[in-house]
Design a protein that fits this description.
Distance between the termini: 56 Å
Strand content: 15-25%
Order of helices and strands: HHHEEEEEEHEHEHEHHEHEHHEHH
Number of helices: 13
Length: about 375
């Protein structure tokens, strides 16, 4: 027997796990119809959703009909990268980036509003941490992206990366809940190997807590030298070897095929021969096949004192860095930044919208979709 609740006391549809939604709706068949609508970025409460009268009544009794998000701005670059600025139910603004590549698209999602890590090359770091997102607010970004993909005729979403605003390891419980809905066969039906969580690895404990996540894992390293790492990621409190050893334990516990390691290369800061040698020494002991992604820094005038001095690593320095890692036996690729024209740096669209202005910046996160393409190629070989 269902009791009619006020809208404010009914949970958002995306806040309830798919299996629990089946119980509330009176059957898995109804839940499958509802989630098929969500996967397409549609509103199950609309008349055209395909739900029968009884199923719609059950839906309205059990869940809040308030939309999970509203679209504030949508910008698109020449390469097709589309960035969404969303207002969530609580009034906060977050970003999501859709990167089309070939037959599929990759979505970059945010896990927090702002971030406490304070990376000196990241626009989000200038905001500080405002709050962590709930699982349904993370999923709202996927829902919004599915709608944008359908409306603009983009390649279908297959990949999701947690490389937007925020540090996922600082919000691991809600990130975990969102991930389980993403990969659930009733839910968004994503493959676990096509979802990736990227973290700076705030502490060994944070890293170990990632072990059960149904996703691939990536470490934002940026520098292997302890002093340099603290310059780039000021909240670093542990030696890099301590963090590396925690990654080794976590990868072994997961029987993981290997870690992705990300390095933003900055001219004269972390792009030299010594930095490459140190990075190899740090990563070489890890189990499995470690893949290093080199991401040339994109100049960002909105950063603090240190960040304003940064310049992109020169192409020849990037190629030399890559060659040094390849010669030492590491898998190493160079990302081509995308979406440079559309305020695409992590957090930049949100920061510029708050200021009422626009800027042209590059995007670290929007360059990751090649990784999934390369993984596909490796599986076929």
């Amino acid at each position: 027997h269902m009791v009619l609740l006020g809208q404010s006391s009914r949970p958002p549809l995306l806040a309830v796990p798919p299996t629990a939604a089946a119980d509330l709706l009176g059957g898995s068949g109804r839940a499958k119809i509802v989630w098929s609508q969500l996967r397409d970025g549609r509103d199950p409460f609309e008349e055209s959703s395909g739900l029968g009268h009884k199923a719609r009544h059950a839906l309205e009794l059990a869940f809040s009909a308030q939309p999970p998000h509203s679209l504030l701005t949508s910008t698109v670059s020449a390469c097709g990268t589309r960035k969404l600025l969303l207002r969530l139910r609580r009034g906060d603004e977050v970003e999501a980036v859709i990167i089309p590549q070939g037959a599929f698209s990759t979505l970059c999602v945010s896990s927090q509003v702002g971030c406490r890590q304070g990376c000196t090359f990241c626009a989000t770091g200038t905001m500080g941490l405002l709050r962590s997102l709930a699982a349904d607010e993370i999923l709202a970004q996927l829902h919004a992206a599915a709608a944008a993909v359908r409306q603009h005729g983009m390649p279908p979403l297959r990949n999701v990366v947690f490389m937007g605003m925020g540090e996922p390891a600082d919000n691991v419980e809600e990130v975990s809940r969102a991930l389980h809905a993403m990969v659930h066969p009733f839910g968004f039906q994503l493959g676990r190997s096509y979802v990736c969580v990227s973290t700076v690895g705030p502490s060994p404990g944070h890293i170990r807590a990632l072990e059960p996540l149904p996703a691939r894992l990536a470490w934002s390293v940026h520098a292997a030298d302890d002093r340099l790492r603290r310059l780039l990621v000021p909240t670093t409190r542990h030696r890099m070897r301590e963090l590396r050893d925690a990654w080794g334990e976590t990868l072994q516990a997961r029987a993981d095929r290997g870690l992705m390691a990300e390095v933003t290369l900055i001219d004269g800061v972390n792009d030299g021969a010594d930095a490459a040698a140190s990075l190899h020494g740090l990563l070489a002991p890890l189990p499995g096949k470690t893949r290093v992604n080199l991401i040339p820094y994109n100049a960002n005038a909105g950063l603090g004192a240190a960040g304003r001095l940064f310049r992109p690593a020169q192409p020849e320095a990037v190629r030399a860095f890559q060659r040094r890692l390849l010669d030492r036996g590491l898998i190493c690729t160079v990302r081509t930044p995308r979406g440079n024209e559309e305020s695409s740096a992590c957090g930049m669209l949100r920061v510029e919208h708050a200021k009422g202005s626009r800027a042209s910046r590059g995007d670290l996160a929007s360059s990751v979709s090649d990784e999934f393409k390369e993984a596909d190629t490796a599986r076929m070989q």
